[in-house]
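This is your field. Please look over both lines of this record.
***
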Amino acid sequence: MSLLVSAAMAAVLLPLAGTSYAAGCSEEGCDGKGPVSYGCDGDGATKTSVTDGIMTAELRWSGTCHAGWVRGTDPYPNDNFWNHYAVIEKHSRASGNPLLKSETVTIPDGGSDWSNMVGGIGYAYRVCLRDGGTGDVVCSGYW
């Protein structure tokens, strides 16, 4: 029976080899979704970034999905006494750039992680770092 199951699995998986998948979302339809699981990370490029001298937050953007996310990185393990966060913000281009939506990720101590996406064309985006202990916030310029 296990030979039959293995053969059936191979028959199902073989057609998938080498298949490329289209993005699973676009623009505002990507809000709150993961860039990897929705296929938006493949053409992700850093558009702007900010650092606090140690941590870095990068605004990653997919031209295919028209959506972005933040990747937060801490290069030094075992140096955090409290959490640090990376945030992507989506702002209106109207006067004052009101905040419309954001996604946050906790930066792992000595590693990197990314947030879910926010999307849409015609908005202003930026990324920020927030220190969970002091409350200090530093942000990139708008992209």
User: Anything to note?
Assistant: The two ends are 57 Å apart (CA to CA). The longest strand covers residues 84-91. The helical segments are 2-13.
